[in-house]
Amino acid sequence: MKNFAFSVVVLILCLPSLQAQISLEQIWGTYEFFGENVAGFNFRLDGRHYTRLERNQIVEYDLETGARTQVLLRGDALPAENGWTGQIEDYEFSADEEQLIISTANESIYRHSSRGYYFIYDIKSETLTPVYPEAKHRLASLSPDATKVAFVHANNLYVKDLASGDVKAITSDGENNSIINGATDWVYEEEFSFHRGFHWSPNGSYIAFYRFDETEVPEFTFANYHDNLYPDYITFKYPKVGEANSQVSIHTYELATAETKEVMSVNDSPEQEWHYIPRITWTTQDNELVVYRMNRHQNKLELLLHEFGPRNRGSVSTLLEEESEYYVDIHDNLTFLEDGRQFIWTSEQSGYNHIYLGNKRNQNLVQLTSGEWEVTNFYGVDEENGSIYFQAAMRDPMQREVYTKSLDGKDLPRAIAGDRGSNSATFSSTFDYFVHRHSTINQPLTVTVRDRAGSSIREIITNAQLAEKQARVGVQPVEFFDFTTSEDVTLNGYMIKPENMGEGREHPVLMFVYGGPGSQQVRDSWRGQNYWWFQMLVQQGFVVACVDNRGTGARGEEFKKMTYLELGKYETMDQIEAARYLGSLDYIDEDRIGIFGWSYGGYMSSLCILKGADVFSTAIAVAPVTSWKWYDSIYTERYMRTLAENESGYRDNSPIYFADQLEGDYLLVHGMGDDNVHFQHTAEMAHALIMANKQFDTYFYPNRNHGIYGGPTRLHLYQKMTDFLMESIGPEMEVEKRPLEIELEEERD
């Protein structure tokens, strides 16, 4: 016992730093390092006030002074009836700001969708009206004049008259795993990034809505376990590569006549050439609806303008067309000007994403921004002053700035928020003010109110306490670097090094990877909770590094889309070269290089340890794709086409076919309730490894989805990953003995 106690003392004395050590409990248990943000932020119409959701209250503030001007609603002050729980989970103003639509008791359906109870709160009368107290419902939305509310229940679309309380069913054929009205199916929600499938027209005369017939879409089932005799089986429609997708059609409902008409269907074109309808949106006119349509390969896009009503009799014209030798990305940047004729559009047709001005009377687009840099977000048009506002990576791909430019396109962009790092903006309705969010990879988020010129008015959030914690625990600076591969491609990366490197001492390195199409990890912006885990590993003697491979974003269309038809090939080559580059540095042990990734990153880390067995000693793959043939139709076919069209692309870049090449330590992790990347991927990978007689570690999480969270789940997962890394490639803590340690040795002798 004496020797054991002595060893503990010596171990404590040998710690490399006397500063406070970061712990997993702080990161994922108590969330001590979680930064402050502005929840439920909304500008008021007057352009001089904003509201935010704080401590279950909707509170209004003065933009310039920061003074609290009023509390619009306290959640716990409302009567607990008709499904109201007392908790405000989300809110939205009516167009005239006299009413609020609020939700409570929300429960997830898939990753982005949910159902709950919605209520209309009249601010003046302080009355609360339930939308549909009979059952939980979805997507409740007030009409522009706030006299009606539309919502989805049991896959049918309804509208309620708020004055009379009458509820009318717009559709009646909704059925689980068969017909969906007013919402989207799983794959549209996940891959076209929206789940509201209906929109009010500008004056509220019509509702345009989606109808999904998913009858022919194959089903997928997974099990959840809840201490019952039998598990709960969750079955839903999930189209995998080459399988049938939903038959989608667009309809309009006219409120005055209660008449429903079909506007367009994917069945309208020969052999379903136009396979997807990824967006619908109204122009500024009440009888003009724009419908996007794409082919299954997603390399052709048309925007069709449908005009209807007694005068137009259903006329259709082409607003614009896009075509690419690779694929066309879908976005929400179509913005019509007040005259109803001109519109803003963003496109990669020049080789970089830029802003264009179009006219619905012809298909000519006038380019407003240009150059070998990317517009990364479009914020809006200030027509009164003839200006547009947008975010761009003009300085370099790792930065983001906020710019303004004249609508006529004749001047150069002017930065109104251009500090080094990541800048983003939310503008008031008048564009007189904007809320500026800024961070760097070493500095957490700050939120500042600025005027239209970019001058600071006041700070809303500083995250000063989080910055103090950074100093207290002795974080190390994240440093950017780049290197050139053997194919003469320059790749960007970042690195965190331990404080006491020690001359001649070699450290293990953990590489973090995502690497998917258009993504970026190497950005000068705050990286959230993983930042703290990486810092904790650095305190243990690891070097942490991340490199953005070919296929990632903000470097132009060719760089992003060059992985087309061969997902994983060039990305893996680049990560292997990055590992070799890191291994060549004199402070990194080339025999102890690990890699960690989640989702697409788990796919990448798996490929890397298999195809780069001579470079990588260890890999952690969380929720990985292990063969693209098991993933969904829209995402996979966008980049790979179908298995029948591209068999070699699928086979040559799927980890399951290279299981026999495993040499290092491999940890495979998956949530068994993952509706996105199914547990099937990990089960098949495990089977392939077993058949190749390869040893590996695995962790599975029952009832957890793609994010693997809930209760202490993240703490549990990160503890396992930390222990795995320490056992596999953990650093040898060789430090100079201190006087007390020497004295203890002499005393023991």
Structure overview:
The chain has 749 residues and is an alpha+beta fold. It has 13 helices and 43 strands. The strands form ten sheets. Strands 36-37-39-38-40-41-42-43 form an eight-stranded mixed β-sheet, sandwiched between helices. Helix 7 (569-583) crosses helix 8. The chain is globular and about 80 Å long.
Which key features would you list for this structure?
749 residues; 43 strands; five-stranded antiparallel beta sheet; eight-stranded mixed beta sheet; disordered C terminus
Q: End-to-end span in angstroms?
A: 16 Å
Rg over C-alpha atoms, rounded to the nearest angstrom: 28 Å
Strand order of the largest sheet: 36-37-39-38-40-41-42-43
Instruction: Specify the structural class.
Output: alpha+beta
What fraction of the residues are assigned to beta strands by DSSP?
A: 25-35%
Describe the structure concisely for a colleague:
With 749 residues, the chain is of the alpha+beta class. Helix content is 17%, strand content 35%.
Which helices and strands appear, and what pairs or packs with what?
Blueprint: H1 2-13, H2 24-29, E1 42-43, E2 49-54, E3 57-62, E4 68-74, E5 90-93, E6 99-108, E7 114-122, E8 127-130, E9 138-142, E10 148-153, E11 156-161, E12 167-169, E13 179-181, H3 186-191, E14 198-200, E15 206-213, E16 219-224, E17 232-237, E18 247-254, E19 259-265, E20 280-282, E21 288-294, E22 300-307, E23 315-323, E24 335-336, E25 342-347, E26 354-359, E27 362-367, E28 375-382, E29 387-392, E30 401-406, E31 414-417, E32 422-427, E33 433-439, E34 446-451, E35 456-461, H4 464-473, E36 478-484, E37 490-496, E38 507-513, H5 529-539, E39 543-547, H6 557-561, H7 569-583, E40 588-598, H8 600-611, E41 618-622, H9 633-640, H10 647-651, E42 665-671, H11 680-691, E43 697-701, H12 713-729, H13 739-748
Helix pairs in contact: 7-8
